[in-house]
Amino acid sequence: MVVDLIGSCRAFVSVSEAGTFTAGAAIARIPQPVASRRIAALEGHFGERLFDRSTRRARLTPFGRDMLPSAKRLVALADAMEHDAQRAKLRPLRLAMPETCTTRDLAELDAAGRALDVFLEFRQASPRERAELVRTQEVRAALTVVPAEEGAWKVTLGLAGTGGSRTGALHLETLRVGRSGGAPRRVWIQPEDDVPQLRDRLFRVRDSVGLRPAQVSVADSLTAAAAAVFGSDDLLLCSTAQAAELGLVWRPIGEIRLARGYEITAGLGEDAQRIRARLWPDIARCLGAEETT
């Protein structure tokens, strides 16, 4: 017979403290017949009686008195383990996120996770830093950049500026400096998009349409890139959500289609599966991604 040692010891301790099987079962929050069966199973396991059943009260036998202290320790240890398990479930999962996510975006993702018993703690970092944080186990998971066609989430990119038409594509070739000279308009790439599959492709288009090398440049930060755009006719490579947040006019690029791709990278595969399965639409909203699987 397989004995539920913890459950049986819990019934044993409760009955010994209450003095009767009925009261002990109530303390253990189980029916009285269940308490009796569990104690009988424990007695069968040990091969000795724990209680003297010749009286109305549940009186411990000498063997029962000897076993009671260790039974109490086992029950206390089991209770402590249950408590520790609950605390561990509530410990936040550290997740590295793009720096492009706003405080509100992250707060809404956090709230969505809490509703599903997924407790998150965010660390915002650049694409290269996020991958390194997972490798060094400083975070349990990260949203890492991948080619758009390989990602679980895709964020379409375009060019945004302070003015101009809101309709139609914007062709990079229109930024060529004419014979009359003048300050050339520039396209700024923010750090989130400073990855080969985006940066290098845009550089190739720059060169093919005859723009100067400096007309498509990587900015030190999103703030620096946005500041350059606000103070000139320059353009920012960004998503529609970022353009709306910054109050810029967004248009797709005429010569090329660019999109950020994101995937979950985690030290444990089950963490990646858990985040993807439970929070897919919420992460999509946080990123400003297309909500399609």
Automatic annotation (TrEMBL):
Stored Pfam families: HTH_1
Domain HTH lysR-type: 10-61
GO CC terms in record: protein-DNA complex
Keyword line: DNA-binding, Transcription, Transcription regulation
PROSITE patterns xref list: HTH_LYSR
GO molecular function, one term: DNA-binding transcription factor activity
Family: Belongs to the LysR transcriptional regulatory family.
Stated name of the protein: LysR family transcriptional regulator
Organism: Amycolatopsis azurea DSM 43854
Lineage: Bacteria, Bacillati, Actinomycetota, Actinomycetes, Pseudonocardiales
